[in-house]
Here is the input.
Amino acid sequence: MNYLDVYTRVSTKEQAIDGNSLIVQKETGQKIAKKLQLKFRLRDEYAKSSTRHYREVLEQIKDDIVAGKVKHIWCIERSRMFRDMTDALLFRRDYLERHGVKLYEGEYGREVKFDDKEAMLMYDIISRFAQYENETRSARSQRGKIQKLKEAETTNKAVYLGGTATFGYQNINKEWKLKKEEAEWVQWIFNAYEEGNTVKQIKNHLDKSGVDTKRTKSGLWNMGTLQKMLANRTYTGIHNVHVKKLDRTFSFKVPKIITVSQFNRVQKLLQRNQKMKDNNKKHDSLLGDFLVCECGTTISSEVKTKNRKDGSVIKTRKYYCMNKNYEWRDGIDRGCNNKKSLDMDRTDEVIVERVKQVALDSNTLKEETKKSVLESRNETRRNIDTERERLEEKCQRIQSTIDNLENQIVDMEMEKTLGKKDESIAKKIINRFEEELVSQHEEYKSVEQELDMLNQNLVWVDWVEKFTENLEVSTKTLENKKTFLEGLINKIIVHAEMGLNRDEKEVQTGHSFDIKFKMNVVNDKLEWNDESDKRKGYNVKHGRKSYKTGLVNEVTARAGRVWSKKKQ
Here is the structure.
């Protein structure tokens, strides 16, 4: 006995409760199968839009038709299977007619005849109407979406437009509300990533803790989902909805889960980690974030392995100026003297030792820090948190102003294009909006810089707590060395040291480093209020922010022979 393959589909949850619900379609299909004396076989494709989603079940039916497994198909309406005219015609020609498959539709199971010209004309007309209906419905839905967004914009309340609620939130009466337990996990995810945990480690912890993902059938977390969560600005209290048709972004306030400053810090971490991936770094580079060539180009790192004939492996680890690669590629001298590479391990060792020595010799770090930072760190943290909250609110206000200005510019451009506004007047208004937009962007940048300074101060407090006691112990691991350097250093400028070779030609003989510190800790001194009675206290005379190592030939890879004759 042959089967009647009953194809059922609804595109939305709302549609599932109307007259063509899945249950209705299934029950009708069972009746038709009984009427045709065929076995019932359900092909259910729930909640899939014909215009936006790949319809897996329909594609499987096509494969089964070609394989000879399907001979009879029924659907409640032809538009359930396809709403595009071209798809309808191709399905009829390539699958139904070619393989002798019968198509039934409607409440009474009427067979669609392919050998009747009038029937075929009606088939094409119905398909065209189905396409038109779909396009009309889509346009109506888009207009409704835009109208909802505009109405919500006036009240500054974000509304749900459908779909699964973002993790950490719930949809209550079409409004964004916090879901407490999920929001706490969102906070944990951001904290964990900022503390140095990888996305995989975070995923494993969530899976072990049984945290519901809301989306996956397996109940396990996806690393891609976590990456998107960490980059989702909605968690800072601003939700953006972009409408492609208008090329416009609507912004709304939603309950805040994390601070703007934490979000920005996490974005920097994401960018840094991505940069490491992009550079295909299969090694740990201690100074990769600090080294800058004297020519202004980034110093990159590289690890190469070479297999010897005897089976041994030679590993070369080096830092080098990217200008060298550009010169090799196009043969153009770009004016950089740093032609030679740096031995990575030796360079790391030299820099860490130099910085440690400065830290140990610094009176600011030894005395003033313990006195003013460690003793009052709780108060310092409170002050920083208060000021940070104020600046974050200011950031949000400026961002809202920027979004409104951008929307006004788009609206004015549309009115100018449609002839609703005189072109010269529109240009003046647009110019005024654009000037204000530049001003707002500058203010936003300024506030962000203030936030960065605050965050740096907080990092500094944490650094002091960790590294003022025993530098030798606290700088054992690579990660600790990185944290140690990050607390003190802004950047390290790599200079080329030059000399003369046998032919009296000027060549690079080595490297030197100009270490730029965040504080005036180089050669700072104590000035006692009373030399005869040091109990009366002291003041710190600030030193410099820069420390030059002098000539360091030993870190230069393949430095070559250097002659004693000096340059005149």
